[in-house]
Amino acid sequence: MIKNFNKIIATGRRKSSIATVELVPGNGRFIINNQSGINYMQDNAYLIMQMQSPLDFLELKNKFDIQITVKGGGLVGQANAIKLGISRALCLFQNNYRPSLKLKGFLTRDARVKERKKYGLKKARKAPQFSKR
After folding, report:
1. Strand, coil or helix: 121
2. CA end-to-end distance (rounded Å), the chain
3. What whole-number distance in Å separates Cα of residue 109 and Cα of residue 15?
4. Which of 27, 63, 66, 72 could bond 16 through an S-S bridge, CB–CB 3.0 to 4.6 Å?
5. Do the Cβ atoms of 31 and 67 come closer than 8 Å?
6. In angstroms, rounded to a whole number, what is the distance separating the alpha carbons of residues 123 and 64?
7. Which of 90, 1, 75 lies closest to 32 in space, CA to CA?
8. CA of 122: how far to CAs of 15, 112, 113, 125, 133, in Å?
């Protein structure tokens, strides 16, 4: 997490997605991997709402331009990583946002990841059918 005079950089993670968020005072532009946020999230209203929820909660939607670089995972994991990155960047911007964001659960990193496959099993926990004879 880096705080410059006019640019705040924070990182969010979810599953195998990593999002680097740059927050700059502006007029509400959302750019993800050099594409518009709506275009990148394939016009999925739920994912767009999910990403912007910290800004909507604090009523800061049109106060910042947000430049995001995101890698890995699928769109849902990336949207949640972006949400965490934006929340962390807002806390760096103004520390008194922290209690309300924490209370709403925006600063909690969801640590659930796919469980690895074990030998002798078909998937992480699914065993082959048992045959008595």
Report:
1. coil
2. 60
3. 10
4. 72
5. yes
6. 44
7. 75
8. 22, 21, 18, 7, 20
- Kindly give the pairing relationship between strand 35-36 and strand 2-3: unpaired
Residue 19 C-beta-side C-alpha neighbours within 13 Å: 32
Buried b / exposed e over 27-48, threshold 16 CB at 10 Å, is: eeebbbeeeebeebbeeeeebb
pLDDT by position in tens, the chain (length 133): 666 668 999 999 999 999 999 999 999 999 999 999 999 999 999 999 999 999 999 999 899 999 999 999 999 999 999 999 999 999 999 999 999 999 999 999 999 999 999 999 999 999 999 999 8
- 8-104 maps to CATH 3.90.1150.10: no
> Which of 102, 92, 121, 115 is CA-nearest to residue 21?
92
